[in-house]
Amino acid sequence: MEKVFSKNNKPVWIGLIIIAFWGILMSFMVPTWQTPDESQHTILIGDSLGIDDLFITLNNDDDLDFTKIMYNYDEKVDVEEWQDSMTKEPSYDVSDVTPTTVSPSVITHLPQTIGMLIGLEAHAPTFWVLTLGELFSFAFYFVMLILALKLMPVQKELFLVIAALPMVIHQVGSINYDSVLLPLCFLFIAYVFHLKHMQGNVKWKHIIVFLILIALIAYVKIPYAMMIFFICLVPKEKFELKIGKKVLGEKFIRTWRIPLLIAIVVLIVLAVMLLSDRIFYFGIIKALFQEPGRAIYLYANTIRSWAKFLLTSFVGYFGWLDAPLPIWFVLISLLTMLFLAITGPKTTEKWSTRIFVWIIVLIFGMFIIASMIDFTVNQIVGPNFGSYNEALYQIPFVGGLQGRYFIPFVPLALYVLPKFKTDWKWRKWIPTVYIALAMIVSICVVYNRYWA
Question: N or C end of the chain, less CB within 10 A?
Fold first, then answer.
């Protein structure tokens, strides 16, 4: 693997240093409980550790009223209260917040759980318990990013810009699913391209690592399991999987790839049909196929109504989605990614591969939107929605949808765009400049929202 912190990679490691400073600073500048659903995720962490009422315990210990600030633009952080929360004597008892069990679900919040447990066992104020959780979460992301950059053989500049989107930095330094999901997805993408471009053949050890990564990703958020199809980016001739004296290689894959894809599709369809009455997500998927006209209307109306919000929440929307980055910076971010995607070393990617990737990305987008129909139905219609098909006709659009949900698939969609071969030396400095600008703009937005 290539060294990241080397003289030849000066723009990359300077960008990483900025990201490290920026991520740590954001953990302190975004006030306690001011990231969406941190309270709910704290409850989930408590459940995974057998700690009853973890959120209630911490919230009672913290004098800061987070509901007073959220969505209320006239309210700012009371600096005196904020300083007191850092030093106040904790009111909780350590024995009440000591884990009694550990369930597999702890994986979905593992980095922040470790940080919070250190704070709890040290009997630290709630402010530091949560901040340690956020800092450990960001540290996990930073380590995964360095490893991903080491593995990534091409288009490091584009990869670094996507990994440094302000929305990413905000989420990976918070207590939520995305703080684990995004690092794993970036590492997975880098690993796929590593397999695609490495000198040797793909062996069973590579497949095992690949499957472990996709299993972890799917465990955190099921829809992202679709990323498993990107193994098709790896050339067939690179596979050399030995079973006894037999070798499963290019000939085997060429013969069985179509039947295998058909079998996977059939299994997915069967799962949807059989589990649609027991799992809401599968029920919605089935209803969308049964009501294609309504499905198209919901997708189109959602994109039409929320286009600006989706773009902004893809690049940067801080706090309780009440501190957006300016639209001019959103456009700069999108144009920067597009420019880096279509310039650089010429690639020989087959058009069949490009089309396959874009189809998977499109299907993924549809599934992500479908997953949010659950939220919309519960918010607008309530639990008594009748059948899944009826529910589709009772909502005007898909609510709760954010652009950040699509970030894990964007690198792959951009990587397969046709490229214009260039050898501009200044191109490698674009990520560094972008990261510096992104940090400055983000700090200004957060400061004006909470502290000015």
Answer: C
- Other CB atoms within 10 A of residue 277 CB: 11
Q: How confident is the model at residue 288 (pLDDT cuts 50, 70, 90)?
A: confident
Question: Which SS3 state, helix, strand or coil, does residue 18 take?
Answer: helix
Among the residue ranges 192-201, 203-212, 217-226, 349-358, the one predicted with the least confidence is: 349-358
- Round to whole Å and give the CA distance between 345 and 422: 6
Q: What is the rounded distance in angstroms from the CA atom of residue 244 to the CA atom of residue 342?
A: 44
Grouping H, G, I as helix, E, B as strand and the rest as coil, residue 421 is strand
Return the sign of the alpha-carbon dihedral for residues 262, 264, 268, 273.
positive
267's enclosing H/E stretch is helix 250-275
Residue whose pair of structure tokens reads 């057998």 in the numeric block: 50
Closest CA to 166 of 31, 326, 14, 10: 326
Mean pLDDT of the chain: 88
State both tokens at 166. Answer: 């302000």
Q: Residue 246: in which H helix or E strand, if any?
A: strand 246-248
Give the separation between CA 149 and CA 4, rounded to whole angstroms. Answer: 7
- Spatial separation of the C-alpha atoms in residues 392 and 386, rounded to whole Å: 10
Q: Which residue, among 86, 176, 187, 184, has the nearest Cα to 137 in the 3D structure? A: 176
**Where exactly are the structural domains of the chain?**
20-450
At 320, is the secondary structure helix, strand, or coil? coil
**Confidence band, pLDDT 50/70/90 cuts, at residue 270:** confident
Q: Which tokens in the block code for residue 305? A: 């109504």
- How many of the other CB atoms lie within 10 Å of CB of 72? 11
Q: Which two tokens stand for residue 264?
A: 């996977």
pLDDT, average across residues 238-243: 86
CA angle 13, 315, 34 (to 5 degrees): 95
- Please state the length of the chain: 452
Report the distance separating Cα 55 and Cα 57, nearest Å: 5
Measured distance CA(206)–CA(212) in Å, rounded: 10
d(CA 314, CA 333): 10
% of the chain beyond a pLDDT of 90: 43
| pLDDT computed for residue 369 by the predictor | 82
Which of 5, 7, 34, 18 shows the shortest CA–CA distance to 319? 34
